[in-house]
Write a structure and sequence with these properties.
- By secondary structure, the chain is an alpha/beta fold.
- 39% of the residues lie in helices and 19% in strands.
- The chain binds adenosine monophosphate (AMP).
């Protein structure tokens, strides 16, 4: 079955075409046939389309909206020169899987999209105004393009964390506010944390119930997750993806009083303050240079810029604090797993995070740590380390494609 997996952001669209079915899932034989990215939708868009095994096609063209972006991709798919193996036209796409950021308490697992599900995703816009509208745009555009006979499935970023206990997800505000408005921690990056936990148990050859680990998804958005008996027990992001670790441009945990104080001091609006906390804080805000970790590390190497060093040290310190908290919440964990653009590619950040952690018996193998880049899945702790350390490149698209197949065939969806 060829599954078109779609991830729509406010001005971007990422996709993969994955050939998978129940047999391929059981044998880990799913194949990614093609993938692509369209950025800056709404103006002069940057387009990268890639049939796996061939040279990527790159272009810059005006693209009006998500529907125009999908139409562009469909023309590329159907172009006889593109030659995606087994795919000659849109008729060869059998299902579509959509990433949906917020499923609130309503969606605890992936579901087939119908009118009711769309209404449910719309209801979540209230608490996810930055994300769910873009996801809905993708759903509507795909419906029009692929027609009513191609089933579509929604895969929620929040779903994996629906197993969190009250003790983890409640905020210490009047309980009635949770009852009335569902104000609570939901967590995000769930598809990624779920994939990392799945790979960990495959590597270790253990059943799901024996997975007690801390997963770190470190990218432009970053989050940590405490996984107990194979399920999400706690996670760093909150009601929205603003809470938790320091990120590329987001502040993470902060005293809420700062918001009112800033409005007062700067004579600014609530929207403007949220824009500062979401778009101009984090690594960018502290360094004053960039939100891009690779560029920041280069800057440190070349110029030893003080604020760049400070931003990196703060970023890592926050992760260390969450590891400490989750070690305690889990009464110890068997492993710490790094993923995401930073977690998968930066030995420096992993070294910094794992330093001075002898209190939990954590020992990084420095040589292995240097080797673990460019998508390598490997253990990077010493044989004597009490807590194992892994780099596990995440693959959210694979989870999405597999869930799409399972939902359509109505089989259980535990990874
Ligand atoms: P993601 O959001 O998961 O795509 O991750 C994006 C982040 O990963 C950006 O901050 C990149 O600079 C960072 N990144 C990618 N490659 C490296 C690398 N080799 N070293 C450090 N950071 C990297």
């Amino acid at each position: 079955m060829n599954v078109f997996v779609l991830n729509c952001g406010s001005s971007s669209l990422k996709f993969q075409i994955i050939d998978t079915d129940l047999e391929k899932i059981a044998n880990d034989k799913d194949i990614c046939l093609a993938k692509g990215l369209i950025e800056r939708i709404g103006s002069q868009a940057l387009i990268t389309l890639h049939v796996i095994g061939k040279e990527p096609f790159k272009s810059a063209e005006p693209i009006r909206d998500h529907k125009a972006a999908l139409t562009y991709i469909s023309k590329w798919i159907s172009n006889p020169e593109t030659r995606i193996p087994g795919i000659n036209s849109l008729d060869d796409i059998h299902a579509v899987g959509h990433r949906v950021v917020h499923g609130a308490e309503r969606f605890k697992m992936s579901v087939k999209i119908d009118k009711e599900v769309i209404a449910g995703i719309e209801d979540c816009i209230d608490i996810a105004p930055l994300h769910n509208p873009a996801n809905l745009k993708g759903i509507h555009a795909a419906k029009e393009l692929f027609g009513p006979n191609v089933p579509q499935v929604a895969i929620f970023d929040t779903a994996f964390h629906s197993t969190m206990p009250e003790i983890s997800y409640l905020y210490a505000i009047p309980y009635q506010l949770y009852r009335r408005f569902k104000i609570r921690k939901y967590g995000f990056h769930g598809t990624s944390h779920r994939y990392i936990a799945y790979r960990y148990r495959k590597i270790m050859g253990i059943p799901r119930e024996q997975v007690n680990i801390i997963t770190l998804h470190l990218g432009n958005g970053s989050s940590a997750c405490a996984i107990k008996n194979g399920r999400s027990y706690d996670t760093s992001m909150g009601m929205t993806p603003l809470e938790g670790l320091m990120m590329g441009t987001r502040c993470g945990d902060i005293d809420p009083t700062v918001i009112e104080y800033l409005i007062h001091k700067e004579g600014t609006t609530l929207d403007e303050v949220y824009s500062v906390l979401n778009k101009r804080s984090g690594v960018l805000g502290i360094s004053g240079l960039t939100n891009d970790m690779r560029d920041l590390l280069m800057e440190i190497e070349e110029h030893q810029d003080r604020r760049a060093i400070l931003a990196v040290d703060m970023y890592c310190n926050k992760i260390k604090k969450y590891i400490g908290a989750y070690m305690s919440a889990l009464n110890g964990a068997d492993a710490i797993c790094f993923a995401g653009g930073i977690g998968e590619n930066s030995p420096e950040i992993r070294r910094n995070v794992c330093s001075n952690m002898s209190y939990i018996g954590l020992e990084l193998d420095h040589e292995l740590n240097e080797e673990a880049v460019n998508g390598k899945e490997m253990e990077i702790s010493t044989p004597t380390s009490k807590v194992k350390i892994f780099v596990i490149p995440t693959n959210e698209e694979l989870v999405m494609a597999r869930d799409t197949v399972r939902v359509i065939l109505d089989v259980p969806r535990v990874f």
